[in-house]
């Protein structure tokens, strides 16, 4: 049962989005019900919390003060929950994790599945978001930690651990490239290639390599979905260019092979585990972070 009142939950959602409709979409509550709660709250408090503008709702000074208090109460509540979880030890507990779409398959579901068997009392809530949004979400207290690609500098965040993920060729195990320990980028001109397209981040380093080396990639297909690229490779349509993390699951199962591309000008993809330096982590969150750190050290 939510600890915050219905009014405060609705108020915080409207304040975040500046729109009753968007708050309705997030909370899965009728917009009319949210509007009634906000109006009732303003009546009880005796002050207007939002300016109603053609472009949406904007907080008044009173609304800003209430939102600041709400966030403080939320942080205090999280700290209390952490202390209660610590009293229970690892028998029970919960943690919220932010991850990018690329981690919805592969090592993370496998790792969390094993933890579920050994620690069934720990409840994990996973939120799939874009990496460039995760820093702000962490600072706002939406999660305990995040796994993000190429994190930008934010003074509020600490990188607990990171791993460099190579870019390479993904092919069938029977393909000639699969027998190589590493490969030159020039091979991309010799075989039919299936390459990432925007908005996938991997299209940028491939474009940089083409410009730097003068190699013209023999592109036969482009896709803005990693799973689609892997599916086409599995069907023998060509060789893909992906990160090791993208193909980790299929490589472990022997369905695909991964050969890293060697080039001094090719920056690796960095996967980082980040936390808000001011957040007090629960026993459950610290435990799962440690397990991920161990996995990075042993497997990658």
From TrEMBL:
<dbReference type="InterPro" id="IPR036390">
    <property type="entry name" value="WH_DNA-bd_sf"/>
</dbReference>
<dbReference type="InterPro" id="IPR036388">
    <property type="entry name" value="WH-like_DNA-bd_sf"/>
</dbReference>
<keyword id="KW-0238">DNA-binding</keyword>
<dbReference type="InterPro" id="IPR005119">
    <property type="entry name" value="LysR_subst-bd"/>
</dbReference>
<keyword id="KW-0805">Transcription regulation</keyword>
<protein>
    <submittedName>
        <fullName>LysR family transcriptional regulator</fullName>
    </submittedName>
</protein>
<feature type="domain" description="HTH lysR-type">
    <location>
        <begin position="8"/>
        <end position="60"/>
    </location>
</feature>
<comment type="similarity">
    <text>Belongs to the LysR transcriptional regulatory family.</text>
</comment>
<keyword id="KW-0804">Transcription</keyword>
<dbReference type="Pfam" id="PF03466">
    <property type="entry name" value="LysR_substrate"/>
</dbReference>
<dbReference type="InterPro" id="IPR050950">
    <property type="entry name" value="HTH-type_LysR_regulators"/>
</dbReference>
<dbReference type="Pfam" id="PF00126">
    <property type="entry name" value="HTH_1"/>
</dbReference>
<dbReference type="InterPro" id="IPR000847">
    <property type="entry name" value="LysR_HTH_N"/>
</dbReference>
């Amino acid at each position: 049962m939510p600890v915050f009142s219905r009014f405060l939950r609705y108020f915080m959602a409207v304040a975040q989005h500046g729109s009753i409709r968007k708050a309705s979409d997030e909370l899965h509550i009728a917009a009319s019900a949210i509007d009634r709660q906000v109006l009732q709250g303003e009546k009880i408090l005796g002050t207007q919390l939002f300016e109603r503008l053609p472009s949406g709702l904007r907080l008044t000074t009173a609304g800003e003060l209430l939102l600041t208090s709400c966030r403080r109460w939320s942080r205090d509540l999280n700290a209390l929950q952490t202390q209660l979880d610590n009293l229970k030890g690892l028998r029970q507990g919960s943690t919220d994790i932010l991850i990018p779409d690329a981690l919805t398959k592969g090592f993370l579901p496998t790792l969390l599945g094993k933890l579920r068997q050994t620690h069934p009392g720990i409840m994990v809530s996973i939120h799939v978001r874009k990496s460039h949004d995760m820093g702000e979400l962490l600072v706002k207290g939406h999660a305990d930690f995040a796994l993000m690609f190429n994190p930008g500098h934010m003074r509020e965040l600490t990188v607990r651990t990171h791993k460099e993920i190579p870019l390479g060729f993904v092919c069938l195990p029977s393909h000639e490239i699969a027998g190589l320990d590493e490969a030159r980028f020039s091979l991309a001109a010799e075989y039919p290639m299936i390459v990432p397209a925007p908005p996938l981040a991997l299209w940028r380093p491939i474009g940089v390599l083409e410009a730097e080396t003068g190699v013209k990639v023999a592109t036969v297909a482009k896709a803005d979905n990693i799973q689609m690229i892997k599916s086409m490779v599995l069907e023998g349509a060509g060789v893909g260019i992906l990160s090791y993390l993208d193909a980790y699951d299929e490589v472990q199962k022997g369905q695909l092979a991964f050969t890293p591309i060697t080039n001094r000008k090719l920056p690796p993809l960095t996967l980082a585990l980040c936390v808000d330096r001011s957040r007090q982590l629960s026993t459950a969150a610290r435990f799962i972070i440690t397990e991920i750190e161990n996995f990075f050290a042993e497997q990658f």
